[in-house]
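hi! just following up on the protien thing from before. the input was this:
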Amino acid sequence: MKAAAYYGPRDVRVGEVAKPGLERGDVLLRVRACGICGSDLHTYRHGLFEDLGVPVEAGGRVMGHEFSGEVVEINGEAAGVKVGDRVCTVGMGGNAEYYRVPAMMSVALLPIPEGISFEEAATTEPLATSLHAVNLAAPADGETHVIIGAGIIGLGALQVLKATTSVRTIVVDISDRRLEVARQLGADVTVNAGREDPLQKIVELTGPEHMSFMPVMTGRADTVYDCAGLPLDYTGTPVLQQAITMTKENGKVVVVSIFEKPPELEINLLVRKGITLYGSWAWSFDEFRHALELIGSGKVDRKPLITHTFPLDRASEAYETQLKAEEAVKVLILP
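and the predicted 3d structure came back as:
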């Protein structure tokens, strides 16, 4: 079968690899759509987290963990699944024509709701990640929530907030393209951090908060989501520091991004403000299922987020496109 394998930074090649064999109870999927995740980009761009890929014979690693497909073979029986079913699932190695679902993971094969495309279903995993971040924040109606980083995770958090709460939403990014998508999805306010100081803007929008023993004026957002992280080549104030400064006393900061280097932080401000800091990693299976239900019900529309699709043979071009924040939101590979 064909697969796109990673061999080093900026080096993804398509070639022939062995088609997965099946043990008793295993399910074989014909992959129909696979998204390129931010974690894939950390590997592709800088060689970080290389062990996330699945090794292949030629020495490369097949990435891709957010995908959908069609059941084409079952060795024996798998509860609730039959050949021909349209399903979405998770695992490592989705940048390939076929994917083996081990018997113990067949419970993670969820049927794609009628009327939902393979492409939309392939965005279920990142939506579940966004949902988990929002669940950690436990938003209450009437609050102000700030999302820094309007990639697939930040925009997903916006969609979850709009679908399930009545909070005021402010989205911050440097990409006009992504901010336009945020407005399309219902963001109450968008801020281009490349043209105006996001902290100053949040202070204007939420009102200033003067903290004793602290020399800076801070914002009063109830929750701030750091969906940007810290790239290796970034030299400004870390987004996490901005988030801490934007948040009100006893507010919440949810970190749902990967840091490519350690940030320099003013921890005293975190301590003085009594902020609750959450690390948000992945999701529970119930959240994964709920994310697909949100898509299937129409409460969340993922189509505006899918900006590019590429055949498997152009996987390298797909990865390069996903790096271009001004052009792309979610890039899918269609094996």
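The chain has two domains: 2-123+302-334, 126-279.
The radius of gyration is 21 Å.
cheers
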